[in-house]
Amino acid sequence: MRIASFNINGVKARLPRLLEWLEERRPAIACLQEIKSQNDSFPAADFEKVGYHVATHGQKGFNGVALLVDGQAPENVTRGLPGDPEDVQARFIEADVNGLHIVNLYLPNGNPQPGPKFDYKLAWMERLRHRMKELLESEQPVVVVGDFNVIPEDKDVWSVKAMEKDALMQPESRDAYRRLLNDGWTDAIDTLNPRGGVWTFWDYQAGAWQRDHGFRIDHLLLSPECADRLEAAGVDKEYRGREKASDHAPVWVELRN
């Protein structure tokens, strides 16, 4: 079973590229971030035509996450990360799909730092850790995917110096991500690429794509019950080079049935 994550950077702007990817790669579950669309204006019919059922947690103009499931509807869909009833940003959705519990998230960027946006990022990560601990304790197969907006280690960025002041690789961000892993989660791409050098994002500016100046911020985390089923994981890098592409490439993990 292939589970994929794709920060699409505007579902309407990238719709042809997204449908192209779905038809060519056909993941069983596709988790989208930064859809930048409200629920009622999300182009669900376009995905239903090619066999995908849709669940969204949208927001006008920015943020927003969606689940696309091949051939069946996701069940027990929950929208919003628990822990702060005043947080209205659409960044989190979870559901049961074909014996798996799927979590799809778009973690706050945190820039500029220091400041309130960075504080929000760290508080959000602490709430996420609490929810992920609950899921670990349930002892069910869980996959947590999305744009984490964290560069975990120096090996995950083309230039440490270029990004050293960015919220994505501050010690506090990295420590919060490391605490998630230490609780018992497996980073699928890192496990299969221990030397690093795998990018998932290339900025639109300064010829980053053409120069391969990227970094890894899109992650696929597996509970122990899923880690035992890990077969492969990777990045569909070529889709970043297509016309009107997102600045992220899709990432995916294959689990044995």
What does this structure look like?
The chain has a single domain (2-255), classed as 4-Layer Sandwich (Deoxyribonuclease I, Chain A). Helices cover 25% and strands 27% of the residues. The protein is built from 7 helices and 14 strands. The strands form 3 sheets. Strands 3-4-2-1-14-13 form a 6-stranded mixed β-sheet. Strands 5-6-7-8-12-9 form a 6-stranded mixed β-sheet. The chain is globular and about 45 Å long. The mean pLDDT is 97. The active site is at residues 106, 147, 248.
* Share of residues in helices: 10-25%
How many angstroms separate the termini?
A: 6 Å
Count of domains? 1
Strand content: 25-35%
CATH architecture: 4-Layer Sandwich
Q: What value does the average pLDDT take?
A: 97
Number of discrete helical segments: 7
Q: Write the CATH homologous superfamily.
A: Endonuclease/exonuclease/phosphatase
How many strand units? 14
CATH level 1 name: Alpha Beta
List the uncertain runs: none
Task: Write the H/E string, N to C.
Answer: EHEHEEEEEHEHHEHEEEHEE
Strand-pairing-aware structural class? alpha+beta
Q: Nearest-angstrom radius of gyration? A: 17 Å
Largest sheet: 6 strands, mixed
Global shape: globular
Enzyme class: hydrolase
InterPro entries: AP_endonuc_1, Endo/exonu/phosph_ase_sf, Endo/exonuclease/phosphatase, ExoIII-like
Family: Belongs to the DNA repair enzymes AP/ExoA family.
Site (Interaction with DNA substrate): 248
